[in-house]
Design brief:
148 residues; two-stranded antiparallel sheet
């Protein structure tokens, strides 16, 4: 009888532990992704600085200084290549080397917001804003290049 009670206690305790572990995982899964500004597939912020801090600063640094080590992440601060809006938009949409494409995760408004933010901050002074229409046109241009 003692063995049956011990086995019952062990099974009950194990089941309770598993239930608590699952509840704990569920409790933390959603707030973390929301805190990062992302849902299951897309970023949710609309402000260029917020998007940059969430999607870009992990590699390029909070102030755009870049990073070097296991990989090289170019500086965006005081970067003359940002003089043309096509440069950052192309990189966000198509990716390049270690930089992944963000085409599926950022809509045209968000790409425009990030491009405008990095072109007007971090020692860059390219005041012409990038619009969602500009990004839509560039997406089509890039797609046409892929097809041709």
């Amino acid at each position: 009888m003692k063995t049956a009670v011990s086995v019952f206690g062990l099974v009950t305790g194990l089941a309770a532990s598993m239930a608590l572990a699952q509840e704990s995982e569920d409790q933390f899964a959603k707030p973390i992704s929301e805190d990062l500004g992302a849902s299951t597939g897309n970023f949710t912020q609309t402000d260029g600085e917020d998007l940059y801090m969430t999607a870009c600063s992990g590699c390029h640094g909070e102030r755009g200084g870049g990073a070097y080590g296991a990989a090289n992440y170019p500086a965006l601060a005081a970067n003359a290549r940002l003089g043309t809006a096509r440069y950052p938009v192309n990189l966000m949409i198509k990716g390049n080397g270690a930089m992944p494409s963000f085409a599926e995760w950022l809509d045209n408004e968000q790409v425009a917001a990030i491009a405008t933010y990095i072109r007007t901050n971090m020692g860059n002074s390219y005041p012409e804003p990038v619009t969602a229409e500009d990004v839509a046109r560039m997406r089509q241009d890039f797609a046409d290049l892929d097809e041709g």
